Amino acid sequence: MIKKLVCIQCPLGCEIEVELNEKMEVVEIKGNKCPRGYNYAMEEMVDPKRILTTSVKVEGGDIELVSVKTDKPIPKRLLKEAMEVIRKARVKAPVHVGDVVLTDLLGTGANVVATRTIRPKALKRKKTDANSAHKRCGSMKI
Ligand code: SF4
Question: Are 78 and 117 part of one and the same domain?
Fold first, then answer.
């Protein structure tokens, strides 16, 4: 059996053909222009991995969700289980870009990190109040 893949390791996007035997073992890989493509194709056949992007609930933030992603690819077979873990997670505001929200997700060694900043609710209100006060007295806050 021949499986066709497009390598996603660089913008060249080489078309790779993987020949598998009846036991679904890799017999030959061709079409890759470098070893990264070979490794990618092998991994796709044996244990494909993906970066997981989703969101986590935030307590006390100016919005209720923070977007997150794993800091490295995790096995595709674990994505559903990983989503269950992330769905139950909560993080307290403030949250900053790059903050680790969960460590070693399902023992994969991947951390879940925030990809945006969430301010606490109180800070947002304070700023709004200050701006309102400036508007009332006619001064401008720079
Ligand atoms: S095989 Fe190598 S050159 Fe081709 S897309 Fe993959 S990483 Fe890029």
Answer: yes
